[in-house]
Amino acid sequence: MKKTFICKSITLLLTVSILFTVFSVPASANSGPRRWQGLTQSGATFTDENCPIEVVKEKLTLNIPDEPVPESTDTSYWADYANEVTAEYTFYNPTQDTITATLVFPCGALPDYARRRTDALSSEELTAYRDRYGTFLNGKAIATTIRYALDLGLDGFDVKDAMPGASGVLKEDKLLQPDTPVTTYVYRFDGIRDEQGMRTEAVLQTVGSNERILCLDSGGLPEWFRDDEKVYFDVWSGDEVSLLVFGDPLPDSAQWMFFDVDEDNAPVSGSAELVRSESVRFMDFCLLAKGSYPDASDTDLFNATVDMVNSENVYGSFGDGAIMHAELTPDLMCWYEYEIALAPGETLTNTVRAPLYPEIDDSSRPREYKYTYLLSPAAGWADFGTLEIGIDTPFYLSGESLEGFKKTENGYKLTCEGLPEDELTFTLCKSRLPMPAPEQLPWVLFGMLGVGIPIAAAVVIIVVVVKHIKKKRREKGNASF
């Protein structure tokens, strides 16, 4: 009996340990990426306030036959990429007037794993890729303008705030105007001690209300300085640092100072040599992004760059040799802009088709793919009727934010009366129960030895104590007879 109990306890310990570690595997220390950021999609909305158009029905179809392969270098794979979303709206005009409305549909920014590949497409392949998507009215393609706005990436976006501004209208900004100077300074630092463990901070007291400075250090880490009294960062001999100054150029009297961070900021020796500097108009600086977004309008590039300079983070990318050239391009997301007109009492069908890119989690086998589609923008319509959601896919569905999906021959389906309160998120995988990737197994073992076993041991101790108490109670009860 005692031997059986010990065996059961050991089995319980190992089971609890394995379960705990499987479901709490930390991020792998492997050099390969464990996660690729995807694209958040959203439905169509209008640019005019108080639009009376009603949505009788929306049929949302997410066609996902393939697993994105971020490592693929085959351009034909990305040219033929099949995962897409189709939003079909049935609009109704309840008024006695003809209504013309401008609509925008955020079809998003290509995630990094797709952008690197589609950039390699030929012009013919890229045209064919874009021609698969667009807007349609009662089944016929309609004129669509491609617009761009700043992509906030991981921070998400509010559709109304993020949509492109009025076409042809530059944003008003006290500092950032077309003729505002943008000056690049490249400094080289020398004469700074290289003792191990010693940190030296370089300080330039220049920043005022008439300038914003982006500092790009030798490690390629950008940081904004606005309305502060100084620019400061850790520096070592041989470092080269670029400063992008938006607004008044640095005064000739600007001097670098150096301080020992570990010794109460005591002054230390060091020198800063200005390697080069150049200045351009802010509008010309904005138009440098034409190389990455050739079909973007000057207005959209200007407005997106204003938003980037005014944002808390740096939503942009740096070209090759960024330290010397400070080639900063804002990350932009694409929007479809188009018009619809409805006569009094008229009903029409508007369809929008766009590519669909998930967030990819490579820490499991098989991989898991998380999709996000924002439903909340539809709350702005005058009225919203029925929402039909179809996820056409051969993969297993899990983690869906909306309850009630039913399995169908093609995938999964959900029908809602009215607009759900939550956004649509879900995960797809080839397996119903994915397991940690092989490179995660050392972490599983570590968890078993360092975390899982102590927890499981505590469970066993509790079981032993409870059994001991029960045994004592039985012995005491038997003794009383």
Task: Give a structural overview.
The chain has 481 residues and is an alpha+beta fold. The chain folds into 3 domains: 2-26 and 441-480, no CATH class; 35-151 and 332-436, Immunoglobulin-like (Sandwich), CATH 2.60.40; 181-294 and 303-329. The chain is built from 9 helices and 31 strands. It has helices spanning 2-22, 75-79, 112-118, 123-131, 159-162, 282-287, 298-310, 322-325, 441-480; strands at 35-36, 40-42, 45-46, 54-63, 84-92, 99-108, 134-137, 140-141, 145-150, 181-190, 200-204, 211-216, 222-226, 231-234, 240-247, 256-260, 266-267, 271-281, 316-318, 328-330, 332-342, 347-355, 359-361, 364-365, 368-374, 384-392, 396-398, 406-407, 411-417, 424-429, 435-436. Strands 8-7-22-5-4-26-29-28 form an 8-stranded mixed β-sheet, with no helix packed on it. Strands 1, 2, 23, 25, 27 and 30 form a 6-stranded mixed β-sheet that branches. A hairpin with a 2-residue loop joins strand 7 (134-137) and strand 8 (140-141). Helix 1 (2-22) runs antiparallel to helix 9 (441-480). It starts with a helix and ends with a helix. Mean pLDDT is 78; it is low at 5-34 and 319-326.
